[in-house]
Known about the structure:
Chain A is mostly beta strands and 108 residues long.
Amino acid sequence: KNEVEQSPQNLTAQEGEFITINCSYSVGISALHWLQQHPGGGIVSLFMLSSGKKKHGRLIATINIQEKHSSLHITASHPRDSAVYICAVTRSGSRLTFGEGTQLTVNP
Amino acid sequence: DAGVIQSPRHEVTEMGQEVTLRCKPISGHNSLFWYRQTMMRGLELLIYFNNNVPIDDSGMPEDRFSAKMPNASFSTLKIQPSEPRDSAVYFCASSFWAGELFFGEGSRLTVL
């Protein structure tokens, strides 16, 4: 079993829909990261959080430390949000453990 | 700031050749990471440095891989000799300690 599991693996939505991507982890962590990767592109850090909730534009990330679970929400989704979203956790030190990613496609 | 700068962006080489990938982290960051991404295995940490010192190299696949960080503004990842199974995108990332990570654009390596 992977230490970091994401669901769903693939997600297709219509423009304007509210989207949720989930991440569960099985180890103690010091922080959780949400990353975005466009096709053929680089990786961008969206959020780093260790408790509560963060918001940036149409993106919201929440984490529940007790339940070892985090969600990434996208409100009013747009085709440019189509990308792979990766959940990663930091355990001791700076080492990241990655989930397998969620491929999101938003159709116009 | 220009962000994390990697070179080359693309490299095509023949099996057995030496490959050197380069990374310039963001100024002021003291942690540097080398990751490899493949379709089969996703993102994998190869090695990371804190203050130019290698901290964890357990992800380095084998002795053919080596990484150096001679100073705070430069790191190299070398593969010698290269093999077709080394074909991947290699990302460098930097952060200030265990803070937010900033990734380079990646170096796409193809070994024929």
